[in-house]
Amino acid sequence: MYNFEYFAPTKVVFGRKTSEQTGQLVKEEKCSKVLIHYGGNSAKRSGLIDSIKRSLDEAGISYVELGGVVPNPRLSLVYQGIELCRKENVDFILAVGGGSVIDSSKAIGYGVANGGDVWDFYDRKRQADTCLPIGVVLTIAAAGSEMSDSSVITKEEGWIKRAYNSDLARPRFAVMDPELTMTLPDYQTACGCTDILMHTMERYFTSGGNMEITDSIAEALMRTVMKYAHVLKADPGNYEARAEIMWAGSLSHNGLTGCGNDGGDFATHMLEHEIGGMFDVAHGAGLAAVWGSWARYVYKDCLPRFVRFAVNVMGIQEGGSPEETALKGIEAMEDFYRSIDMPTSFDELGLDPTDEQMKTMARMCSITTNDNAGSARILHEADMLAIYEMAR
After folding, report:
1. Nearest-CA neighbor of 391 among 226, 279, 265, 303?
2. pLDDT < 70 regions, the chain
3. What is the pLDDT of residues 149-165, one digit of tens each?
4. Are the C-beta atoms of 337 and 344 separated by less than 8 Å?
5. Residues 340, 233: contact at Cβ < 8 Å?
6. Cα 108 versus chain centre, distance
């Protein structure tokens, strides 16, 4: 195992009707004015935004609002949010939504609190010194951004999708009511389950450092998500399943499942960022479409981990060679994706990238990662292109 630091400062308020506590939670942050940041009309139609406004009114907190966040959140809206916050002297951001809303809120928080262009942080040109405090009312279990240090933003000019990580943006609190996720479309629920699994697998498939307790937590989390993903496909209104998935999403991306290893692989995420940037696909679906190709490309370089995954997570009986066991585990994972209507290739995702588009994605991924992505196997631009080609 490797030395590690674990930092998870977010206060979690979990369960039915917990969104009614939002005003009091914000009041405890000693702020004077709040930006309520959210996505589309569903948050308004459901009455959630009005309920949160009432909670803030009762707590004596003034606010402004900005909706319009879309999947793969846009830099242009971040700029609007920064301008609005400065104009209205906002000193706290309340994200009402899922990962896209939370990521957009973090970017606005960086932009308001630091000078210059906020895109500089995502473009690796400089580091943030501070960030406006952020709270979350979670409505989608997927990205884990409610407890993570990560934010991913898409710049429309060139359709460039980039991540920036800093503990400065970890939310102060996260309100998690599983009932708020019950109206999600089945496809969005499945995408969320896929993203949760991938956040765990990115930390699991490493070539450096392991802890038995960390591995066991990760394996249990993955088994739990797959179990309850099937439950939700058959019974979308199942509260217990919604709760299990929501909590798994937070634990998958707050650092817990990476303690003691080398920091994780995350090559699949980097590969998907270019797919999402170019084609604006749902993040979870993009991950599922490319994961199997990545796994088959790297498994021999990380064979013991793939064998353990096959046996402990996918329930494969050991027999034959380790390579055969590993491949059966990969196949079983792809079968799971298909069972919840997730794609396992570009074709199943509904894409037919040209050779030139795949070369562009590989080149951009190489630039973003300094031509050095992964842990299970270090990937360079030629490797990235080969994986994209395998994913056809």
Report:
1. 279
2. none
3. 999 999 999 999 999 99
4. yes
5. yes
6. 18
